[in-house]
Amino acid sequence: MHNLKNVPRCENCKAFNDNCCMLAHVERGFLDQINDTKNINFYPKGATIFYENNYPLGLFAIYKGKVKIFKTTENGKEYILRLAKEGEVLGYRSLITGEKYEVSAQALEDTHVCFLSSSCFMNLLKQSNGLTKKVMESLSQELKIAEARLADMTQKSVKERVAETLLMLRNFYGLEDDNKTIKANLSREDLANMVGTATETLIRSLAEFKEKKIVDLKGKKIILLNLSLLKSIANVQD
Fold it and tell me: Domain spanning 2-153: which CATH class is it, in words?
């Protein structure tokens, strides 16, 4: 990890101007406070941004890149809870509660992350009605997503969850120029950790999807050949 020398102002950030970032909801009078305080750190692919069971020192907002949020089981296996990309904020719940992180965050690709100190964020939270409202909305949304994921784990089969995960990756990463290939180079282990199954089971499901011409596989690349059937297997609606 290292700091960028030339830190862009929030007003020049696409995620900020698109209201994708939580900090975009502060009143304009607080922008100087953020710009004067924040740093931008670079994390190469595979670098850990923060570890579970450590106390938070500040707020992380993804400027460029993609990050996986995961929890490690007692036997050392990862369970990926979600993926995060440009504009998303990490670690704010632990900051608010003063508790240790319950999860870890790791860069899936070379990633730049804005860092705002705990004291600055908490001061903003006390003063900015816009930020307070957005934090409450985000906490509510995260709870909703967590409840839906738990329901999927208990009610959906592995094949359904694999199909649903592929559709989620399509929306998260987007597609290459052929409009079929997911723009992602995730390992099979990472995919299995997202689905919540063993790597061998994930590989068998993908092989079955390939045999049925639902997907094609080229190395780490996954090509979606039959989107409507994939949605049917995942039991999701447009």
Answer: mainly beta
